[in-house]
């Protein structure tokens, strides 16, 4: 069986392990203050003061629960209060037809390319230029998933391998698609249209009344488990010097950008078809904005796209600590799946099936995976460095006769596995990834229940925990929208 190991490594490399830079800096300042008190005051009083400051700093700043420190939790809460005071936790949509709409604050600076009067007027390409991140373009493509039929496990494994080949092709040098977002949107199936069809075409025939009633009962019995799945891919094009130079072959300015994007999307559609994904189609403005509107307010059907534009697809919302309320009707919660929460065990092609298709009763949910491709030469250099560090750490422990808890062996095994996978000629490249999911309900009690059901389904997918983004749901929701967001990317 084709398997992969996606779990994060159980410890970090370096002096501070997995402690992030800000926490490490704060701990360093604490140590300096403790030393200053110890040496400046001197004597027993200085020693007690220095040790007290050091102990207090470690107690407050160290992430004892493996997620965030007490100080980080306090900062998070105060930041929510500050954001609410500034008015950025609430959004009221502008009137329809506004030429320059006010976007929700988390969306930042994003606007469609002006392609009117060009050969690419049918395309909808978003230009993102937010402070602190490299500018990029994004385009949404809808796919219908794999063909529906009974399949042996070998076919799923082959499809998984072809999907991996697609990602490798996108990661190679010369490809301008440097990131991909995969979105799976799951909605309860609405049987209203099917009921209307049965009533109009079948129910009126004589002699089958009992059969129709039995069929209606069957629809009622399966309504709470029936779901519809919508699948999207978002291609991300960083606006680098190489991209600008290649775009000049297709025209100047935004026209050239759109020409190069169209060429790359044609290649992506071909790769998607070879990966056994059905009917890829690039979405225009109305269909893209209808997807965005439906993700915010499921009361708007995703296929009801007439008249939906970038200027009117954004819905009113109010963020609370435990959720964000949209149009005073729908409550959303967002969670992030930390890489270290995924068990470091072999995972087959169906490892996410419980989260995608086995949540009962049906729950409105969105699963988003952002992937940033790392060329093989860069990923291989990082793997070589990590193997050298892990090997040296393990050698020193053996030389000193230290008995470890298995961490050194696990780290060395993980880095060697990455280096083996990246062997020259293998065709493999590196990837950085992040996974986010959102759940939606009509009231707070139901939202709590669906959150529990989704967390239980995640546990069956070898996901140890979900980090719910409390006090931050309005901003975190952007990671589940088809905008190519959700992870920090180096320039």
Show the helix and strand layout.
Elements: H1 21-41, H2 43-61, H3 70-86, E1 90-91, E2 110-112, E3 126-128, E4 136-143, H4 153-171, E5 179-188, H5 192-201, H6 209-222, E6 227-238, H7 241-247, H8 253-274, E7 281-282, H9 285-296, E8 317-319, E9 324-326, E10 330-337, H10 353-357, E11 364-374, H11 376-399, H12 407-421, E12 430-441, H13 444-459, E13 467-468, H14 473-476
Antiparallel strand pairs: 1-8, 2-3, 3-4, 4-6, 4-7, 5-6, 5-11, 8-9, 9-10, 10-12, 10-13, 11-12
Helix pairs in contact: 1-2, 4-8, 7-8, 11-12
Q: What is the structure about, briefly put?
A:
By secondary structure, the protein is α+β, with helices and mostly antiparallel strands. It contains 14 helices and 13 strands.
């Amino acid at each position: 069986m084709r398997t992969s190991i996606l779990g994060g490594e159980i410890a970090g490399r370096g002096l501070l392990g997995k402690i992030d830079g800000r926490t490490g800096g704060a701990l360093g300042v604490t140590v300096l203050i403790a030393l200053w008190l110890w040496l400046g005051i001197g004597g027993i009083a200085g020693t007690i003061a220095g040790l007290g400051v050091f102990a207090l700093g470690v107690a407050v700043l160290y992430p004892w629960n493996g997620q965030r420190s007490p100080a980080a939790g306090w900062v998070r809460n105060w930041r929510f209060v500050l954001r609410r005071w500034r008015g950025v936790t609430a959004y009221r949509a502008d009137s329809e037809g506004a030429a320059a709409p006010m976007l929700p604050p988390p969306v930042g600076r994003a606007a469609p390319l002006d392609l009117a009067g060009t050969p690419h007027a049918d395309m909808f390409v978003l230009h993102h230029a937010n402070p602190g991140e490299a500018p990029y373009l994004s385009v949404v493509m809808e796919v219908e998933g794999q063909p529906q039929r009974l399949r042996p496990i070998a076919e799923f494994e082959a499809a998984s391998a072809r999907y991996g080949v697609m990602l490798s092709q996108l990661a190679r040098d010369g490809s301008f698609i440097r990131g991909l977002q995969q979105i799976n949107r799951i909605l309860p199936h609405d049987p209203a249209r099917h009921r209307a069809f049965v009533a109009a075409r079948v129910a009126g025939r004589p002699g089958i009344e009992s059969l129709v009633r039995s069929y209606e009962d069957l629809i009622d019995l399966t309504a709470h488990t029936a779901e519809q799945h919508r699948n999207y891919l978002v291609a991300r094009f960083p606006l680098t010097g190489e991209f600008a130079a290649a775009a000049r072959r297709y025209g100047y300015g935004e026209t050239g950008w759109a020409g190069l994007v169209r060429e790359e999307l044609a290649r992506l559609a071909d790769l998607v078809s070879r990966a056994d994904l059905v009917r890829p189609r690039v979405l225009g403005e109305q269909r893209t904005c209808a997807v965005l509107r439906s993700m915010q307010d499921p009361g708007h059907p995703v296929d009801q796209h007439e008249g939906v534009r970038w200027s009117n697809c954004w819905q009113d919302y109010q963020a609370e600590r435990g959720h964000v309320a949209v149009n005073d009707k729908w409550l959303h919660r967002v969670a992030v799946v930390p890489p270290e929460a995924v068990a470091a065990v072999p995972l087959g092609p169906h490892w996410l099936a419980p989260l995608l298709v086995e949540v009962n009763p049906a729950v409105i949910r969105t699963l988003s995976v952002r992937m940033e491709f790392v060329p093989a030469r860069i990923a291989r250099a990082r793997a070589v460095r990590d193997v050298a560090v892990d090997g040296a750490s393990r050698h020193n422990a053996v030389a000193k006769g230290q008995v470890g808890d298995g961490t050194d062996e696990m780290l060395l095994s993980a880095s060697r596995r990455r280096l083996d996978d990246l062997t020259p000629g293998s065709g493999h490249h590196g990837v950085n990834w992040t996974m986010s999911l959102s759940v939606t309900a009509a009231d707070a009690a139901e939202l709590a229940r669906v959150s529990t059901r989704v967390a239980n389904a995640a546990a069956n997918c070898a996901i140890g925990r979900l980090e719910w983004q409390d006090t931050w749901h309005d901003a975190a929701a952007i990671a589940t929208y088809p905008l190519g967001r959700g992870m920090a990317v180096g320039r």
